[in-house]
Amino acid sequence: MKNLILRVKILHDKFFSLVSYAQTPFLLVVRLYWGWQISQNGWGKLHNLPHVTEFFASLGLPAPGPTATFVATFEFIGGILLAIGLLSRVAALGFVIDMTMAYITADREALLSVFSDPDKFMAAAPFTLLFASLLVLIFGPGKIAVDMLLARWFPASEAGAPDSSN
Fold it and tell me: Which residues, in sequence order, are CB contacts of 73 under 8 Å at separation 6+?
């Protein structure tokens, strides 16, 4: 019995090791696809600010004009940052907030159905970007990202961070 458990553990470890190789390409695809999509969405909003402002006003958001401009600009620039992997977790956090607010203001019924009707919650427009943003926020951008390149060029100890060797 002990031998069987050991074999299962060895197989599990090998499987986990193989699957781990997919993490970086997966995160790259998530960042590129959703970064591009949200950047295009922001670009469209920037070119239709009167319509976006009118929509935000219909939702009862305060200062709909400046809010529309801020959201459109953030989605455009943040999408580019997410796609290239620069300030990835900061951009992802911003999109988590953005998509949560989209649920609260524009799709409250879907948000409130998260437990009673999960299909409705997952079919709502903000869901996929919220999920993709949570992936990048929690797991980082992956190894193929500007963030990782900068981390190699400027290690933490050189950037003024406390030296952990003490």
Answer: 42, 46
pTM of the full structure: 0.85
DSSP3 helix / strand / coil % (the chain, rounded to 5):
75, 0, 25
Tokens 């030296």: give the residue: 163
Residue 11 lies in a domain: no
- Of the chain, the percentage scoring pLDDT greater than 90 comes to 89
- Is 158 domain-assigned? no
Tell me the residue type at 129.
Answer: L
Question: What kind and span of H or E run contains 116?
Answer: none
Residue 13 in domain: no
- Look at residue 165 in the predicted model and tell me its pLDDT: 43
Question: Would you say residue 103 lies in a domain?
Answer: yes
Buried b (16+ CB within 10 A) or exposed e, 105-141: ebbeebbebeeeeeebbeebebbebbebbebbbeebb
- pLDDT over 70 percentage in the chain: 94
Residues 7/10/12/13 CA torsion (nearest 10 deg) = 170
Q: What is the residue range of 64's domain?
A: 28-153
